[in-house]
Amino acid sequence: MLDVIIIGSGCAGNTAAIYTARANLHPLVVAGKEPGGQLSLTTLVENFPGFPEGVDGPALVENMKQQAINFGAEYIHGQVVEADLSDRPFKLRIDDEWFESRTLIIASGASARWLNLPNEQKLIGHGVSSCATCDGFFYRGKKIMVIGGGDSAMEEANFLTRFGDSVTLVHRRDHYRASKIMLERARNNPKIRMLTDTIVEDVYDVSQNLVSRAKLRNLKTNEAWDEPVDGFFVAIGHIPNTAPFIGQIDLDPDGYIVSKGGARTSRVGVFHAGDVQDRSYRQAITAAGAGCMAAIEAERFLEAEGH
Ligand code: NAP
Considering the entire predicted model, what is its pTM? Predict the structure, then answer.
């Protein structure tokens, strides 16, 4: 019987692990299908406080993990495939094995939705990004492309005009899902050029390990062309990793955990941390803060129950 299982090994999960391990709760951390979370998909992180010269994203998250291990946290590879939270102790099936725990911290994140282009994954961190806040700065004076037609795409396109020479916003339809105000802001921004009815067929150039162009196609005319681009930002939504918890804790219509205040979920003893609940900020530092909150709540909960 464990005191705490932490699901996810990104900033949120690792920070929860540091705090719970330091409180002698011997947390078990389930690394998940994207170990290290979103930071493991970035290169230089310049906005995590404490690193004046910036810090390598994968190194930062690996250091957090090492810090948690130094205090006694245990990490296992694998994924939660099934959960029974109806009663305590909570029961989790991690791959083929069932585990029991008095508390649970769900820090399983939200995975960026990708376009699934042939070269897309190979260029992540080398011109392809899913986070304008994280990577926009690297494209000062460059040609930027944003894909999507929702609020995220509008927000990212507007934000990226601070850096880029030009921002081309590519959307597959001629109707936008984005809210009117966000759409108008993008339309009124002289640096943004909007291409509708246009899809991306691929992004290049893997041989140079950077992005230099994207192949676009207009769906109405069927015309295809290569568009020069340096920074390629995919903003077509995120998918929260909550599948095993459907029907067990309150989720919103998009699958994000509904917070009941602090780090509490609708199930007593189950806490949330990071992007799995946060569709708004999604930053390494906010996820780390949320991991700390969840750990403190789990600790207090166990103490109140006499463990
Ligand atoms: P979203 O609203 O689901 O929009 C996703 C966009 O990506 C849609 O335009 C969709 O096109 C497009 N898309 C999806 N899959 C695609 C594919 N395979 N190829 C090309 N295009 C694809 O996602 P979101 O913009 O991330 O927003 C999520 C939620 O957060 C929304 O409720 C939004 O309002 C909210 N949000 C709010 C703010 C804000 O208010 N500041 C900022 C960001 C997000 P189709 O339209 O053709 O389906």
Answer: 0.80
